[in-house]
Every structure is written in C-alpha cells, then in structure tokens.
Design brief:
Length: 308
C-alpha cells in the first residue's frame, strides 16, 4: 500500500492506494504554518491514515508528498513555498527519519498531473495517453504527462507556463516580468480586476456577468481568453491528447468549460490551422474534491527519479 499526501496552504489531504491501483482510505485536516508545523501536519496525517487502515507506518511501501513551491525531487528539499512559510525545508529526509519509510517529495501541480492522468486513465481505459493538467488557482501552472511519464525538464520548470509573457504592455507579474499569462488567467488576476468583499471573487464575478453587469462581462471574457490561450499554448508546445483543468477555479465547472470552449471554437472559425487541432474537444474540467495531487503524490512515492 502506498500513501500520498497533498499539503496545501490551508488544508492537507491524503489517500492510500492499494497494489491494484485503486483508492482506499482518505483523510483531510488543516495545514500548519512554518517548517515545524508542516512536518507535524504530515506526521499527524500519517498517524490518522494508519488508524483508518489498521496498519503501522511501516506497512506503507512508500510515502509521497505533493507540496507548493520549488521542489528538488532528488533530495526532498522544498524552497519558496511562501503560503506555507517555507524558505528551505528538507521535508523528505525529516519525514523519512521519523517514519522509517521512503518519502518522496514533488511539486503539487506536477503531482496533480500524475494523479489526474492515473484516475482519468482508469475511467477511460487509457494509461499511456498524453495529458496536460492546467492548474488554475491563485496562480497558473501546468503539469505534463507524456507516454505515462511526468515531464520535468532539465531544471524542473517544465509546465511553468504562467510566466510566459503574452502581452508586452500588460500588467506587472510577481515574477518580475510584464504581461505573463498568469496576469490574465488566475485567481489573483480576478481579484485584481474584480475586487469584492466576498470569499469567492471568481464566483462573484461569474454571477455578476450572468446577471448582465457589462464590466463583469469584460473581466470574465479577459479571464476566459487567458484560459483558452493557456490551452492553446499547451497543445501547440506538447500536442497532448487532453488538457484537464483543475485547481480552485475548476469549481466554476460548466461555466468555465463552456466559456473556454466558446472562445476556442471562435478562434477555430477564423483559423483553419486551429480548427484542424480541435482544441475545444481536448479540454475538460475536473470536479471539486477530485484528489488528484494526493493520488499523484502516492504515485511519486513509488517511483525513484534518476539522480541529476
């Protein structure tokens, strides 16, 4: 049995995967802030999972962690996970020492790509098709799976499409560039363009647009155009079979999918080249609560990356 843990900025989710690849027990709990609390959260999660499964920690053949930030998967070190208060944590080694089990660590979006590929592969009978997981949350990033394997790139930044500039005259990006894709299609882009006191700015935006607010319609269309541009970029650079949209903004569901399809189909009407790619047919949105990152973390835990 393998254990996968997705450590997020506010909550941690975990799943156990049996030898047959099917999901077993699942756990959710709050995430602590700071290095010691993140480690403590992971240990509590393992403890809770062993209670549910009725096994000792050593019964897990491996433990995988998906976590935001820059991750060196060969060493298990996490840096620049600002929302967790981490600037340098040897998470893998610290957990392995405490648990006596091999622990692997991966960036959460890349882990989610593996998890979505696994779960959707079970659903449609495909295990080796290519897929890009487009994570729409506070920021924007992607994980890419080709021939069943995660594409990491030479320096681990494959899929960081949110920081590809698409508008030289656009808004400043937190990365120091201007007009990045993330400045168009992300949670913080919506919060910037549609300030609200509500807990869910994206939901407020889409509701206002549906009600006929012309400014809301403009902001929504800017966002959807950015999402469609991300899909187009992923297909043109990797030619994946599917682009799966996940992350917090995937909760917009059919409105997000329908709007993205509408824009992609509009582009296809004026471009025979894009029409031949049938971009809209490649896009789907995963439902809220889909444990992609935790499942992917479990798969990461069962695989040793080659040393660089």
């Amino acid at each position: 049995m393998r254990l996968g843990i997705d450590i997020g900025g506010t909550k941690t989710a975990a799943v156990a995967i049996g030898a047959d690849g099917e999901l077993s027990d699942q756990v959710r709990m709050p995430t602590g802030f700071g290095a010691d609390e993140v480690v403590a959260t992971a240990l509590r999660t393992v403890e809770r999972m062993t209670e549910l499964a009725g096994v000792a920690p050593g019964a897990f053949t491996s433990i995988g962690i998906g976590i935001p930030g820059a991750v060196d998967s060969s060493t298990g070190r996490v840096t620049h996970a600002v929302n967790l208060g981490l600037e340098g944590l040897d998470l893998g080694p610290r957990l392995a020492d405490r648990l006596g089990v091999d622990v692997r660590v991966e960036n959460d979006v890349k882990a989610a790509a593996l998890g979505a590929h696994h779960l959707l592969g079970i659903a449609d009978g495909l295990r080796t098709h290519s897929m890009a997981y487009l994570n729409l949350g506070t920021g924007l990033a992607a994980g890419i799976v080709l021939d069943g394997k995660l594409l990491r790139g030479g320096h681990g930044v494959a899929g960081e499409i949110g920081h590809i500039p698409v508008d030289p005259a656009g808004e400043p990006c937190g990365c120091g560039q201007r007009g990045c894709l993330e400045t168009l299609a992300s949670g913080w882009a919506i919060a910037r363009d549609w300030p609200t006191t509500g807990r869910h700015p994206a939901r407020d935006l889409f509701d206002a647009a549906t009600a006929g607010d012309s400014r809301a319609v403009d902001v929504r269309e800017r966002f959807l155009t950015g999402v469609a541009a991300a899909v187009r970029l992923l297909v043109l650079t990797t030619d994946v079979d599917d682009v799966v949209i996940g992350g917090g903004l995937a909760a917009l569901g059919g409105e997000l999918l329908g709007g993205t399809h509408r824009i992609l189909n509009g582009w296809a009407e004026s471009s025979a080249f894009l029409a031949s790619l049938d971009l809209a047919a490649r896009v789907q949105v995963i439902p809220p609560g889909f444990p992609a990152a935790a499942v992917g973390a479990a798969l990461v835990g069962g695989h040793r990356w080659p040393k660089s």
